Amino acid sequence: MALSNSQVTRLGDRLRGSSITNDDLALLDKFRQTFSEVDEKAYAIIQKVLENTSDWTATKRKRKTQQSIVDKLCRLPQLRLPQMQDIAGCRIVLKSGTKQASELNNFLITAFTQQDWQVEGKERDNDGYRAIHIIAKLGKQFYEIQLRTYAQDIWANLVETMSDEKNTLKYGGNEQEQTIMNKLKQLSESFVTIDSEAHNHSIEQYQQRIEAAIRHVLSD
Known about the structure:
Blueprint: H1 5-15, H2 22-33, H3 36-50, E1 56-63, H4 66-75, E2 88-94, H5 98-114, E3 118-126, E4 129-138, E5 141-148, H6 150-162, H7 175-196, H8 203-218
Parallel strand pairs: 2-5
Antiparallel strand pairs: 1-2, 3-4, 4-5
Helix pairs in contact: 1-2, 3-5, 6-7, 7-8
C-alpha cells in the first residue's frame, strides 16, 4: 500500500525524536524505496544528455541513507520529510570549469523540461561549498542532480576527508576545526578564479593550478 503524504509527514516528525523505533526505520526504508522509479527515469535522461559531451568524468547515483535523512530533519526542524529534495539523485563531475558547467546545466534543464518534469537549477554557495544543484520533480517526488566542476569536487572531497563521523567540520566544530574550515573557504575562493578561466587552459594546466592553490593555502 502506498504511503500517504500525511503518513510520511508524521514519520518525519517522529524521526526527530529521541526514541526512534524499528517500525519507524522500516517505514523510512519503505519510503526511500518509493523513489526507485523516479530514479530510473531521471538517470536515463541524464545518460542521454551526457552521450553528447566528453567533459564529464563520472556520474554517481546516490540514495540518501536513513541516518542522513534523520540528521537533516534534526538540523532543519521546519523541513517536512515529503519535501526533502535530495533523497534520490546523482552527482556529475566535470573535467572543466564553470563555463562548461553552465552549458551542461542548460542542456539538462531542457532535457527534463521536454519530458514534462518541473525543473529548477540553482547555484549553491554555502560556507565554501559550490556547485549547481538541479532539482527535478515528477509528480510529488524530487530528484537532485549535483553538478560540480573538477575543482568543486576536489574541495568537497577535502572537507569529507577532514571531517569526523559526525561532520562537525561542516556544521560548526571546535576552534581547531573552525581554523581549518577558514582555510578551506579561502581555498574555495581561489578555485572560483581557476574555474572561471578553466576553458582557456588544457585539463593538465587546470589540474596543476588546482594543485598549486591547495599547496599554497593548506601549507600556511
